C-alpha cells in the first residue's frame, strides 16, 4: 500500500509541477527583446482602400535606438516623397519618461503621444478631431512595418459602440543603414 501511495504522490507532484514549469518556460519564451529600431529605413506607403491612379509615396524614416535611460529621446524623422519631390517631413522624437513603460512620441509644439511597447510592437492610440487613430510599429529582421488604422470616433455609451473603420496607412520599409 505504501508503494502505491508513493506512486500516486509522485504522479501528483509531476502533475502539479509540469504546469508550473510550462508556465515558467512559456513566460520566458514570451519575453521579447526590445526591437532594433536604429537606422535609416526606406520604402513605400500604401493607403487602403487603394485609390485609383494614386501617386506612389516613397518614405525615408530615420530612427534612433529605443531609449533605455529615463529622460532620453532619440530622433524619429520621416520624409515623404512623391516623384522625388518632398511632400512632407515629420521631425519627431521617441522619448522615455520615468521607467521602461513610460514611452512617448514628442511631435513638437507641446504635442506628445503616449506609446507602449507591447511585446515587440510599439503601439500608440490617439484622437485627432473626430478620428481615432491606432498605430502599430514592428521590426522583423531588416524590415520595419508600420500601420495606422483610422476610424470615426463616436461618443461612449453603455455597451458596445461600433465605429466605422475608414482606412489603413501601411508602411513597409527596409533598413538601408544602421
How are the SSEs ordered, and which strands pair?
Layout: H1 2-30, E1 39-48, E2 57-63, E3 73-82, E4 85-96, E5 103-108, E6 111-118, E7 121-128, E8 131-140, E9 143-152, E10 165-177
Antiparallel strand pairs: 1-2, 1-10, 2-3, 3-4, 4-5, 5-6, 6-7, 7-8, 8-9, 9-10
Could you explain the architecture of this structure?
- The protein has one helix at residues 2-30, and strands at residues 39-48, 57-63, 73-82, 85-96, 103-108, 111-118, 121-128, 131-140, 143-152, 165-177.
- It is α+β, with helices and mostly antiparallel strands.
- The chain has a 10-stranded antiparallel β-barrel.
- Strand 5 and strand 6 form a beta hairpin.
- The longest helix is centred in the N-terminal third of the chain and has 29 residues, at 2-30.
- The model is unreliable at 2-29 (pLDDT under 50).
What descriptive keywords fit this protein?
178 residues, 53% strand, alpha+beta, disordered N terminus, 10-stranded antiparallel beta barrel
